[in-house]
Amino acid sequence: MVNGTVQQWIYSLVTFSIIFGTEALFVNITYVLSGVAKGAVCLDGSPPAYHHDKGFGTGVNSWLIQMEGGGWCNNVTTCLSRKNTRLGSSKQMVENLAFSGILSNKPQFNPDFYNWNRVKVGYCDGSSFTGDVQEVNPITKLHFRGARVFLAVMEELLAKGMKNAENAILSGCSAGGLTSILHCDSFKALLPMGAKVKCFSDAGYFIDVKDISGAPHIEEYFRDVVSLHGSAKNLPPVCTSRLKPDLCFFPQNVAQHVRTPLFLVNAAYDSWQIKNILAPDVADPYGVWLNCKLDILKCSSRQLQIMHGYRLLFLRALNALGPSSSRGYFINSCYAHCQTEVQETWYRADSPKLANKTIAKALGDWFYDKNPFQKIDCPYPCDKTCHNRVFDPNVHTFNIDI
């Protein structure tokens, strides 16, 4: 695990690279100081925080809430390793955050949402905003209060004008994408009765499957997350009333019960899921999958066959949700993870497409009820519009907690 300073530097460098070539928009941080008295705090006890760029023109009463991603922590050790980073403390979050992709304020980069109120909520609890443990260990001083953080931020945004919202989207990437599914209906309940409210998950559809060694690694991991953070009481009751709480951390067991319209964007060969669910380090002690996980072009024919099998399991978990006219999905066959906050994969001439539509166009048409969108890509490598991720072999990125 890299230390907090190096991690922050890497994060800033990546953020800069995302906006390179576009007109940069940097947004100041806001701390939710009122949340502290309610116990709504990050892992280290610091106040929650978010970055908000105000809406203008026709978008002044429209709100896009983007929940930050960043994995989870499943035990005291992994939570302590996050505690002094931006994923555990608002003290370590960047003061000025670059907004791009779905958060851009330029119509040429974000045609449907550029003039909305766009908010990026900092992720500093490690439980996809589901935890709530009253007790604080006097030695570790870890606070597990994700659910309180979510509510405190939403209450502040409501007071700042979201209570007058005409349109609203709860969205997020990765662990933030999972947040948008788990909190979708509760988010809608906070908004005015007449508002058009929908939810959008980018790379948040994590599936419950065994790894290459045959072990239920991700299921055990989520069980530890739910137990440590006291998440059970904040997971959808319609799921926890029939399944073990940890199974309700998986979207495949929750999404079919979400009443609010939901759009899912996911790569069927999601690079994070391949690295951490299908072939985690613990299941690959000799590093046979290392090069494949870094670059899909370096996968052997056998590894690709296994990944094709993973795609079929992913599609089975998606299809198990059953038909829904209000649900949308954009499932491409790219080796990628999170495609909406990066301009090149959100909305650009060479962005990934399905049915000749970018993710931005598909989502915008779906939100405004112009056209439904439920498209699944053909298997890799048939899609020539993909921007497949290639990872730096010198940066070890396979720890599930980062």
TrEMBL record:
<comment type="function">
    <text>Hydrolyzes acetyl esters in homogalacturonan regions of pectin. In type I primary cell wall, galacturonic acid residues of pectin can be acetylated at the O-2 and O-3 positions. Decreasing the degree of acetylation of pectin gels in vitro alters their physical properties.</text>
</comment>
<dbReference type="GO" id="GO:0009505">
    <property type="term" value="C:plant-type cell wall"/>
</dbReference>
<dbReference type="GO" id="GO:0071555">
    <property type="term" value="P:cell wall organization"/>
</dbReference>
<dbReference type="GO" id="GO:0052793">
    <property type="term" value="F:pectin acetylesterase activity"/>
</dbReference>
<keyword id="KW-0964">Secreted</keyword>
<keyword id="KW-0134">Cell wall</keyword>
<comment type="similarity">
    <text>Belongs to the pectinacetylesterase family.</text>
</comment>
<keyword id="KW-0961">Cell wall biogenesis/degradation</keyword>
<keyword id="KW-0378">Hydrolase</keyword>
<protein>
    <recommendedName>
        <fullName>Pectin acetylesterase</fullName>
        <ecNumber>3.1.1.-</ecNumber>
    </recommendedName>
</protein>
<dbReference type="InterPro" id="IPR004963">
    <property type="entry name" value="PAE/NOTUM"/>
</dbReference>
<dbReference type="Pfam" id="PF03283">
    <property type="entry name" value="PAE"/>
</dbReference>
